[in-house]
Amino acid sequence: MTKQAQYPSLNDKVVLVSGGGSGIGASIVRNFAAQGARVAFLDYDRAASEALVTSLKEEGCDVLFAFCDLREIDDLRAAIASVASALGPITILINNAARDDRHSIESVTPEYWDERIATNIKHQFFAAQAVAELMKQAGGGSIINMGSTSWMIGQGGMPCYTTAKSAVQGLTRGLARDLGPHNIRVNTVVPGWIMTERQVEMWLTPESEKELMERQCVKRRLVPDDIAKFVLFMASDEASACSNQSFIVDGGWV
Ligand SMILES: NC(=O)c1ccc[n+]([C@@H]2O[C@H](COP(=O)([O-])OP(=O)(O)OC[C@H]3O[C@@H](n4cnc5c(N)ncnc54)[C@H](O)[C@@H]3O)[C@@H](O)[C@H]2O)c1
Asked: What is the pTM of this model?
């Protein structure tokens, strides 16, 4: 018997995850598939995404991958329409994709600024706009926007990213009010430092790991599954009283 929590309300639900090809998104895809949900994900990393689909297929789970560069809003809208026509109305949206590329203040051009905003926040609004109509017709839904503790702890080295990530809070709170009467819940899940392949490859050093072990109350590396398990709960009916909120999952970083 499995020791993982099972949420009956997630069984058969149509779930869309942006940036589901790797990192936290891939873990979210896996975890929803294990709940018996019908899962689709959007990503522009074709190789990683196809590898995830194949590995899940070997485990007996079918998930749908739709190639999409989320910075292109027309493409995003078309991808959402194609997922809905293949799987049915989307009632759970996980707005997960982002990129924490580092950049100095001096290097930022107006074009780079726009590109970072498009990568890190703009698609969250337009995905929510598109699925909200489907959710209304289906009688409700849950939208989870992925935030970040980076701006809360005053992290430097990526002002475009931290600006966009702080705006996720405002987006959630703006949408939750308008969509609440349609039984659509909107929340932010805010990860701390989560050891994805990319984080380990690019940013983890012996010094930064030492700082992590000092600052986190929980003395272990956090992994994508730590976020995915919380996202499952937030998307399920067990969290039906939660909307318009932000939930930090960071191992108690101080
Ligand atoms: N890992 C962490 O420590 C951490 C900390 C705080 C917040 N977060 C947030 O969690 C979420 C997931 O982060 P992650 O660490 O798993 O990231 P990641 O870089 O490991 O994975 C992001 C995925 O999104 C995809 N993606 C990025 N831009 C895209 C685009 N324009 N079009 C289509 N696909 C695109 C990538 O191909 C990749 O598969 C993000 O919102 C991030 O801001 C992560």
From this structure: 0.98
